[in-house]
Amino acid sequence: MPQCIVCKLETFVPVGGVPICLICLENPPVDQPRTEREIRAVLVRRIIDATVQANAASSSFTEVTSQFPSGLPHPDGVQRIKNASSALFIARKEMAAAHNRLNDFLSRGIVPEDLRRSG
Hints:
Elements: E1 14-15, E2 18-19, H1 22-26, H2 36-65, H3 75-108
Helix pairs in contact: 2-3
């Protein structure tokens, strides 16, 4: 059985392909994380959010490009395809950044600057 990526308890709940227990899913960490568990929870949530956005952008791109069966879109269709492609590129880039931040934290203990305690 998979383990929750935040607290390491066994779980049946994969959210966005990431195993996370209901306790960690329903109890978001504080605004300024202080413990390793809270930092990990914030980073996992950001991966989940980025994955949801990337999936939505991918669906939007597919929808836009499938509206032109002849392969020759109307002039405004070209701009719609460019916009959808740009949104998909940005969403995938943000998802990769979220994965890299979590990986850096888990493998090397690097806490992202925006999650470091001040003071």
